[in-house]
Design goal:
single chain, about 325 residues, alpha+beta, Jelly Rolls, about 30% helix, disordered N terminus
């Protein structure tokens, strides 16, 4: 009988949560794996947050009709073939998990990815954008917001303050009002405008702030504060670690506002993560060595499939599609 590795494959907390969700809902789970899951869950706040989001999709299974469920199973059987090795290898290729997990567990994972549970908008947000959509908002105080793809925003104005709640990415052009501070609140921190224009990006538990005009004050959830982040500077929180203040090329960071995605020597995994924000469905890299390939290029965010085709051709990668929206990438 094939055994399953006790630890999830390397990757983001969201990808590891996919693994555990599939495994815990399969008949292959044993006590050792249950213990490994509990240790993984307790290891960090990021893991717990990813796990909570992963569970949301499970409720969607009941909305599948019998015909949809049958079609999913048929597509799985037809398009996802077990991969065997002619010779034993010391380290498992990710594709070998198809054999190890068996059909029930892998079907759970595919359905989770297919339903796209990791990009749910804020349920009661005032504004939100779909995949690939950019939306310009004119607020009541004269401020404007450009809301990027798959993002949500709520507005709470009073006589003393102007508060914005954000999940996703937005560019703010703030109207002056000395009597009412303008603040953007995210899951990971708070940004107060001390000037005119800035950008905030909040994805999962990671946050980045870029200033285009004048300055802002950034207060992270952990309590650390940057009193003045100046024009042309950026600061980011990633994996619960606050990075240094960086000087950035504002023309490059602003490219998304012109429907462009710019990458310079970035691992393919980061590129695909960004493409997934603009594309319905999901792209999954099944080969760790492929995920580490460096990519440089400028792509049209309104046509992510064209970007994907260019990347596949350049890296000689192969793709396997399910429902035309779920794409698996492997090396040659």
């Amino acid at each position: 009988m094939n055994q399953i590795d006790p630890l999830p494959p390397t990757g983001s907390a969201a990808e590891q949560a996919d693994y555990w969700l599939a495994l815990l809902n399969s008949p292959l789970l044993d006590q050792g794996q249950q213990l490994a899951f509990e240790q993984w869950l307790a290891a960090s706040h990021e893991n717990r947050l990813a796990w909570e989001k992963a569970q949301v999709w499970w409720q969607k299974i009941d909305t599948l009709s019998a015909s949809q469920a049958a079609m999913l199973e048929q597509r799985l059987a037809a398009n996802v073939k077990p991969v065997t090795q002619a010779k034993p290898v010391a380290k498992k290729n990710p594709l070998q998990l198809f054999n190890a997990w068996g059909f029930p567990a892998f079907a759970c994972l595919l359905l989770a990815v297919w339903l796209g549970f990791t990009s749910l908008p804020l349920k009661f947000a005032d504004y939100h954008t779909g995949k690939g959509e950019l939306k310009t908002l004119a607020l009541s105080d004269g401020s404007t917001v450009l809301l990027n793809t798959d993002s949500s925003l709520s507005v709470d104005y009073s006589g003393r303050q102007r508060n914005i709640s954000l999940q996703g990415e937005a560019y703010f052009k703030v109207a002056a009002d000395a009597q009412r501070p303008f603040e953007v609140q995210t899951e990971s921190g708070r940004v107060r405008a001390l000037g005119t224009a800035f950008e905030v990006k909040q994805l999962d538990a990671d946050m980045a702030v870029t200033v285009y005009e004048h300055s802002v004050r950034v207060t992270f959830q952990q309590g650390e504060t940057v009193d003045r982040l100046e024009e042309g500077q950026r600061i980011a929180l990633s994996n619960q670690q606050i990075g240094p203040i960086e000087n950035v090329n504002l023309k490059q960071t602003k490219a998304w506002q012109e429907h462009l995605l710019v990458f310079k020597n970035q691992p393919l995994q980061q590129v695909i993560t960004e493409l997934n924000r603009y594309r319905s469905g999901k792209i999954v890299i099944m080969d760790h060595s492929l995920a580490e390939h460096l990519v440089t290029g400028v792509f049209d965010s309104s046509d992510p499939d064209a970007a994907l085709a260019t990347i596949e051709k350049t890296l000689a990668a192969k793709e396997y599609r399910l429902f035309n929206s779920l794409v698996f990438l492997t090396g040659t």
